[in-house]
Every structure is written in C-alpha cells, then in structure tokens.
Write a structure and sequence with these properties.
CATH class: Alpha Beta
Shape: globular
Bound molecules: iron/sulfur cluster
CATH superfamily: pyruvate-formate lyase- activating enzyme
Number of domains: 1
Distance between the termini: 34 Å
Order of helices and strands: HEEEHEEHHEHEHHEEHH
Structural class: alpha/beta
Radius of gyration: 17 Å
CATH architecture: Alpha-Beta Horseshoe
Helix content: 25-40%
Strand content: 15-25%
CATH topology: pyruvate-formate lyase- activating enzyme
Length: about 250
C-alpha cells in the first residue's frame, strides 16, 4: 500500500465513524514508502482515532507509536518455531527490551498448540513488558492449512481450559462470555462493526473472511468480533474486556 492510499484509507475509515484502528499485515512494521515508515502512519492515525493498535510478528523493534502492540506467539518455543519460521527467541528478546507501555500477546489457538497455553502463560509471566494475552481460534481458509483447525471436541476442551486458566488468575483478557460463546459459536455476530482495508485501498464492511475465503460461521474463531458484538449488545463481560484491552493502561 502506498503512503497516499494509506492516508486516504485512514481518512475514509474515520469519516465512516470507525474509532479504533488496528494495523495488520502481512507484517505492518516492515511497511515503508519512500521516506515514510510505519511510525509515520501510526502517528497520523493516533491523532485521529480513539485508540490505535498494531498486530506484529514481534521480530522488529516494538516501540512504535500505537496505543497497543499485539505480538503474535503461537505456542511453546518448538511449536511456534515450526509454525512461524524459528522466530521465538527473537520475539522474546524484543519483548524483554521493549519500553512500549501496552504490549499484549495474541495467541491463535490451533490443533497443534491448544495444550500449550498454560506453559506459554507461565513463560510470559516472567516478561513484565507483557501486560496480558488475548486468544482467538484458528479459522480454516482451506488453503492447505486445514489440519490446524480444531474439531468440535478439541475446540470445547481448548476453550474450557482457557476459561479455567482465566479463573485461576492468568491475564487472559477475553471475557469469559466470549470464550464460552466460542465453544458452539452461540453468539450473535454484528459483523457490520468491522471494516477492513485491503492493500489496494478497497474497503469492505463486515466479516474479515469476505473476499478472502468462504464464510463458515460454524468454524468462526474471531474472538475480537465476538467481543465487539457482545459489547454492542451491552454484555458486561465484553464491555469490561474492551475497557481492559483498549483503555486501561495498568
Ligand atoms: S465467520 Fe465469524 S465474524 Fe464472520 S460473519 Fe461468521 S460469525 Fe461473524
């Protein structure tokens, strides 16, 4: 995406009443166009939006001017390295030296890593820069990665285990409501709350899967949409999760 397309997209999102902006990739922190880097885009968005965030693979300097930095870690060192190109040590090193005030880890639960959540949480406990963890479930786009999808039984076990760990005091920021709702996908989706921008500047309102694959709501693992939908329906747990993730800086 060029600088001009990015600036135009940010203006259009703001004009369309979006108030939280999350940069995703690819890898957003690699973005540059001529003299402009990701930090220039982040500063521009920060001046307009109520909250800004970025989701990164964690292999770059994490001190960027968004309110929140989400670092993807997908399991124990060996599983993560298998799934994400041997990047685990580099991520941990970057986390340990980061000075950004709000770094969260985002864990996408799949068929290979769902048993590793507790160990990962214990490990992250040793890194004070990590202020919390958010979870979502792998969604199969049917592009050769279907083996990572969880079957019904495993999905239930994974979610029940996450709920138990949250009750034990681990810093899982998803609401218990949304974790429970993920077991059978028994939540009402307000997909209009989400707006996506593609690299060519195309803006699509609604489900993230639109224009990327076949929408199968029975397989949905998009906890951010579930949480936003819950907040829209004034579910207290989702409102609290939103406050903890986006507003609370402790
Ligand atoms: S896949 Fe998930 S986010 Fe997309 S429309 Fe279905 S329930 Fe909503």
């Amino acid at each position: 995406m060029s600088w001009n397309t990015a600036v135009e997209s940010i203006e259009r999102l703001y004009h369309d009443a979006c108030r939280i902006l999350v940069f995703e990739g690819g890898e957003p922190l690699m973005w540059r166009d001529g003299k402009y880097t990701f930090s220039d885009l982040a500063r521009l968005a920060h001046n307009k939006f109520l909250r800004t965030a970025v989701t990164t693979n964690g292999t770059f300097n994490l001190n960027v001017p968004t309110d929140i930095v989400w670092v993807s870690i997908d399991g124990s060192k060996s599983t993560h390295n298998r799934l994400r190109c041997n990047s685990f040590d580099k991520i941990v090193a970057n986390l340990s030296k980061a000075t950004h005030p709000k770094i969260l880890v985002h864990f996408t639960i799949n068929n290979q890593n769902w048993m590793e959540l507790e160990n990962l949480l214990d490990m992250l406990n040793q890194i004070p820069q990590v202020k919390g963890v958010t979870l979502q479930l792998f969604y199969p786009y049917n592009q050769g990665e279907t083996s990572l999808a969880l079957d019904r039984k495993t999905r239930r076990l994974a979610m029940e285990s996450a709920i138990m760990l949250k009750r034990q005091g681990y810093p899982i920021l998803n609401s218990t409501w949304s974790l429970k709702a993920m077991i059978n996908n028994s939540w009402k989706c307000h997909e209009h709350l989400l707006t996506n921008v593609d690299p060519d500047g195309t803006i699509t309102q609604g489900c993230y899967v639109k224009s990327r694959g076949e929408i199968d709501c029975s397989q949905c693992g998009f906890t951010p949409v579930a949480e936003a939908s819950g907040a829209f329906d004034l579910i207290p747990g989702s409102l609290l999760a939103g406050w903890r993730i986006f507003l609370n800086n402790k």
